Amino acid sequence: MKKNIPFLSFEEINKEIRDGIFESFSSFFDRGNYVLGPNTLKFEQEYSRFSNTNYCVGLSNGMDALRLSLLALEIGPGDEVIVQANTFIASVLSIVDVGAKPIFIEPNLKSYNIDVELIENKITSNTKAIMPVHLYGQPCEMDKILTIAKKYDLLVIEDNAQAQGATWNGKITGSFGDINAVSFYPGKNLGALGDAGAITTNKLECFEKIKMLRNYGSVEKYKSKIIGFNNRIDECQSGFLSVKLTYLNHWNDIRRKTAEKYFDALKCVDHIILPEIIEGANSVFHQFIIRTKSRDRLQNYLKSKGIQTIVHYPIPPHLQTCFKSLNYSKGDFPVTELLCDTSLSLPIWPGLKDDDINYITSTIKTFFNQL
Hints:
CATH topology of the largest domain: Aspartate Aminotransferase, domain 2
Radius of gyration: 21 Å
Mean pLDDT: 97
Low-confidence stretches: none
Strand order of the largest sheet: 1-9-8-5-4-2-3
Shape: globular
Number of helices: 11
Structural class: alpha/beta
Helix content: 25-40%
Largest sheet: 7 strands, mixed
CATH class of the largest domain: Alpha Beta
Number of strands: 14
CATH superfamily of the largest domain: Type I PLP-dependent aspartate aminotransferase-like (Major domain)
Order of helices and strands: HHEHEHEEHEEEEEHEEHHEEHHEH
C-alpha cells in the first residue's frame, strides 16, 4: 500500500513539547518583557553549558551568527577565509558580506566535510581564518584543523548549524573554535519555532563584542560604542529553545537509531554509496545522505511512491550566480560537483516509524532491482 512520508515532520516532537511550549509562551506573554529579557539570558546560560563553553550570545539567525563572528574577529576586506566548497551558501555569504574572500577547499568523499589534507596548500599571507562546517551532523576533523590553525596563526570559526550535540573525539562541536556559530532554524536538530541563532565562545572579549554588535553597538541603552546592528534573538524563541534543549540528546539518539536502520537495510544495495562515519566522529545525523548516479530517477520514483526526499545542495556556492565575480567555472571543484549531482537526503526526523523506514528502504531496493 502506498504511503505518504514527508521529508520532515514536526508532529511527534510537537506532541512531546506542547505543554512546555504553551507554558513558556504564557509566561512570556504575561511578563511583558519582550526583547532581551530573562528567557534570553536563561537560554544563553543553558546553551553555553550544553556546548561546554563559557559564553553564549543568542542571535537572530545562523547566518548573522557567522557574520558577527567574523566581524568580532576583525575579519574583513583583504582577508581570506578557508571554507569547504560544498557547504550551504550561508557560510559563504557571511564571508563575502564582511568583505573577505572565501577560499574553497574540496570535501573529503568519505565524510563530506572539508578535506584537511588540502588546507595547507591554500594558505597565503592573506589567510585569516578557517571556517570548518560540520555538514549533515558529522563533525569535522577538528584536531587536525586546530593544529594547522596554530601552525599558521589562524583563527577558527565553527559553522555548527547542522551538528548540535555531535562530538569529535568526545568533545562537543561548537566548543573548538575561537568563535562558533549555530543556527536554530526550525528544521535543525535543535530548532526554534521561527528564526534564531547563537554563538558560543570561551573568549570574554568576543562574547562582549558580539553582545554589542547584535544590539546597535551598545551595552547601555542609547550609548553605542561601535557600529552595530539589530541581530537580537527573539525573547519568545529563547523560551521555546530552552524547552526543546532538554529533549535534544534524546532526539539525537533517535536520529542515530534511524541511521543504523538505514545502514543495515541499504548496505548491500548495489549502485548506492552510503555515508561514512569517520573514526573519532559521533554524528547527530541532521541529514542521511545516499549517493547514486541515478539520483534524479530515484528521487522521482520515490516521489511517485509517496516518499519525499531533498537534494542538499543541487548548485554549489562557486557556481551560484551571485558569486560570478569570484570567476569560478564548472569543473573547478569536481568532488563538490560530484556530490551535488549524486546526493539524495532521506527522511530522518524523530517520530519516523519503523514501518516508514522499511517502506522507504524496500522502495529503494525495488527501484534498483528494476535497473
